[in-house]
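Fold this sequence, please.
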Amino acid sequence: MIRLRRVYDPPDPAADGVRVLVDRLWPRGLAKAEAQVDEWPRAVTPSAELRKWFHAGGSWEEFRVRYEAELAGPEAGVVLAHLRALAAEGTVTLVTAVRTPESSHASLLAELLTAPT
């Protein structure tokens, strides 16, 4: 099972399972102990170039295409396989600093992780 949550929300040990930070940069003002992140695989986070392009006014549709292209790389593939294996064993919670994880790169990543391979 894949869940989405904000990293700033208090961890829920009973429901979160493995907490995976899916942001390239560490969230501002949050101590690592407070975040309780189990993994931080930067290979599946949007690149700095893609983030800058999107925040400069890039479209969501084009962001999706470019992000999926980044996730098609070999290093990301290894991480995606690892995350799928974790999800097969229990809950994986993708945590992000964005205000609405459901309409962010985290939701695209969750889609990819739950899609049939």
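Residues 6 and 100 are 8 Å apart (CA to CA). The mean pLDDT is 94.
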